[in-house]
Amino acid sequence: MGFKSTLLLLGLSFSSFSADFLFGLFHQSFLTLVQEQSNLMVFDDGAYVLNMSTGDFGICNSNSKAGSFKGKFSKKELKKIKKLLSSVDQECTNISDCKRNSNYEERKAKWSLRDYTKKNKDYSFYETQPELINYISQNINKYKETPLRSLSLKINAKNAMVALNFEGSETYRAALGINNFIVLEKDGSLSWLNTFKSKKSADNAKIVTFSNSNNKQELLRLPIDIKEFQKRANFLIYTNKVDAHHLDPKRKLYSPCVKVQ
Amino acid sequence: MIKAFGNNLLILIFIYSVGAFGHGGFAPPIDSTNSAGRSHSGFGNLGGNDYEASQVLRKTCLEEDLNQLKSDIELSCSPTTKDSNFDLSEFLSTGTTLLTQNKLQSYMASVLSSELKLLTGTNTEKNSCHGINPITPAPHEEVRKSALSVNNAVSAALIDSMFSGQAPDYQERIKRNYPYLYNPKDAKKDILSVVKSALGDAYKSSGNMFDHYSTVTAFEAKAIVDKTFKEDIEKTVKKVQREYAKNVKSTLDNVCSMSMRDIAADYPGILDQYIIDSKPIDRKVAQYSLCRKDFYYNSKKFDSDCDGVKDDEDESPKDPLVPTSEVNVVGKNYTHPPFTIKAKYQLSKVEEDVKLTRKIKINSSGMSEEQREKILAQFGTCRDLVKENIQKSYGEFKSTSSVFKDANLELDLEFEESTSNVDFKVHKCWCSTCTLKYKDADGNVRSVPKDTCKEDFTPEMTAALEDKVLNPDDSRRRWFLQADASNLNEGSLSNCKTIQHEIMHKLGLSDEYVADYYPFNLVGEHDSLMNGGNDLKPRHIGDLLSPKKCERVAGNYGL
């Protein structure tokens, strides 16, 4: 390798992103029909990547966007976040159900935090969370300004139409049909929308490719009695069903939801 | 013998192809229990399904089914036998093998050509053998596209390294989906070293599945924010895939002369996919030759009774295709990442019948006696549905089994109250996804515990339902009942599907759906209880009744 090429390589490495990981925050809910996985990876220069399969930590925050997002915290916010991160270890000591270095089984339906600034700092929280998680949780919608790929839902009760909206710089392939919807009923149970079906319709889903330039919205008419549906349903949830996983090369399932009104 | 048979076979291929692909009435009707026959209806079935294919083979490799196959083939071939000097017995003994081999070679040429195109972006001339039009490998292409993506390559390589030697079934599936990670051997090491050096402390590989999830998440995040890293890892994966492409090219050059046994041994995924993609008559012909013992059985490699002694040195080897009737064993634990499932159940032989026993441990502490009774009654209803489902499937299973055909299956699934090694926790109230914040009497911000009933709320918790500062989102200011897989409410037992699925886990069945921690293509039928559907399949029963498993040997068809 000659002198020039060495210089070129050095130049490349200097111009590349060199920030280390600060922490990773994970939340999972293993529900009966929907699996929620959310995570936020933060770098020490403030850059972050956020993934939210349902749009929320948990399920169904009305009209919240599900998807993958990126961004960068302001210096002020990063400073605050670093300060909160530094106090997590002490908070863990004071929180009765905080666990260090849990196994996978123990991580179901709760928070996990991996602090990459210190070796082996790995926490799990159940009912009570440290301030860092509270802060992020309260501000989560602020961190969705730059979607890589995001989906949201909207219902038009007048004509029983549901719209699946896309935003983002990347593409997303998904299936859309009556079998791609789940209902959170008012008693808290989850069921497939097709069990509410009152009108004849084919169940065949179409495959849609969303992109920033071509296709930002897809509509579907719901073959249900909308008044009956409104009486029973709390939220309508879209899911790119598991057996359609080949549609998205990155294997990401997004399940946004919308409040039924 | 085969050479002399060649001219007749060519005629047969022609006539037979017209029948199988063109006109109805020639091929026998599709076996309605054979789910592989409908595996490509609709977009949702694009995934290859090695499990299904192996099981179809297994099911039909029993002696009596082989006879049935023979008569099906005789029936299908009858127009040919009338019009030529065609020798049916010769066809059954050698022609089925040659016919399947030729069609398989042609199919494989097509698969490899399309794979090479995906790997290198260039078209190849060879995409068939012997002038046979191959069945379209389009579904196979979808699977390959997914397996060639950089994200999935990293995910699979990481899993393989984390669970090396611990979960052979799981690793075998990854091997089939990601052949380029193993060919050249250890190619995945290059990929992992690039990821490891870029992620630093965020690279975790202790064998805890959460490590896989957090490491893949960190990898994806790094690739999004760091273009140089993204290029590096893409380059490395492409390099590994290019190396593999050389192997594919070399195989493609020779494919038309490969023996069926070699294809089966070295490319079992392609053989399985061929069986799935085939028309029913092709599948039957293939099965007839694949089921012949001289094809599947290598006594030097196979330890059919799992006693550690290969059959050629074993004084009393068993036929590997006949399930054992000596069922008096304590069940199994298995590692199916990310979950280690304690599937300890007992199988015992009661005269000619089989008895399966499993205690289901429930923790309902904290509930009143009345609530406990109610919940146990609901559990009982779900348990009865499980039993019904198992018996129904057992009926189908035993009809194809020479060993179990006269045996009844007794199911002893009793409940037991326990606070240790609990299978299910039952709560009076449980809201899995509620995240209501409140300020306690000392002013500390807390979350309302998920097992709190609304009627037991403290005044501070009740106030939180209106507190838009602590709970800015509307959806957080609410409280209701919502179960998850391990924590149940009274109400959540009204639909038994989840409980049935979970109980079958306790009996050793694994998930068949796809998730990011299962980075291989779809396994199992779409209506399988373990894949979000309602049905148990005969293969599930085969699993339950065959708790002893030993390592598979390549070419022996997932027995």
Helix content of chain A: 10-25%
Give the overall form of chain B.
globular
Task: Tell me, rounded to a whole number, the average pLDDT of chain A.
Answer: 83
Rounded Rg of chain A: 21 Å
User: What's the story with the biggest beta sheet of chain B?
Assistant: 6 strands, mixed
Number of helices of chain B: 18
Counted beta strands of chain B: 8
Low-confidence stretches of chain A: 1-15
Distance between the termini of chain A: 67 Å
Oligomeric assembly: heterodimer
Helix vs. strand class of chain B: alpha/beta
Strand content of chain B: 5-15%
Based on CA inertia axes, which overall geometry of chain A fits? globular
Distance between the termini of chain B: 31 Å
Low-confidence stretches of chain B: 1-60, 323-330, 548-559
Helix and strand topology:
The complex is a heterodimer of chains A (261) and B (559).
Chain A: H1 3-15, E1 21-30, E2 35-43, E3 47-52, E4 66-72, H2 75-86, H3 88-94, E5 99-100, E6 111-115, E7 121-125, H4 131-139, E8 146-156, E9 161-167, E10 172-176, E11 181-185, E12 190-192, E13 206-210, E14 217-221, H5 226-232, E15 233-238, E16 257-259
Antiparallel strand pairs in A: 1-2, 1-6, 2-3, 3-4, 4-8, 5-7, 6-7, 8-9, 9-14, 10-13, 11-12, 11-15, 15-16
Chain B: H1 2-22, H2 50-60, H3 63-83, H4 88-120, H5 138-148, H6 150-162, H7 168-177, H8 188-199, H9 209-225, H10 227-254, H11 260-266, H12 268-277, H13 280-290, H14 293-296, E1 329-336, E2 339-350, E3 353-363, H15 369-399, E4 409-417, E5 424-427, E6 437-439, E7 445-447, H16 459-464, E8 487-489, H17 497-506, H18 538-545
Describe the structure.
- The complex is a heterodimer of chains A (261) and B (559).
- Chain A is α+β, with helices and mostly antiparallel strands.
- Chain A has helices at 3-15, 75-86, 88-94, 131-139, 226-232; strands at residues 21-30, 35-43, 47-52, 66-72, 99-100, 111-115, 121-125, 146-156, 161-167, 172-176, 181-185, 190-192, 206-210, 217-221, 233-238, 257-259.
- Helices cover 18% and strands 36% of the residues of chain A.
- In chain A, a hairpin with a 4-residue loop joins strand 1 (21-30) and strand 2.
- In chain A, 46% of the residues are buried.
- Chain B is of the alpha/beta class.
- Chain B contains 18 helices and eight strands.
- In chain B, the strands form two sheets. In chain B, strands 1, 2, 3, 4, 5 and 8 form a six-stranded mixed β-sheet that branches.
- In chain B, helix 6 (150-162) packs antiparallel against helix 9 (209-225) and helix 9 crosses helix 10 (227-254).
- The two termini of chain B are 31 Å apart.
- Chains A and B meet through helix 1, strand 1, strand 2, strand 3 and helix 4 of A and helix 5, helix 9, helix 10 and strand 7 of B.
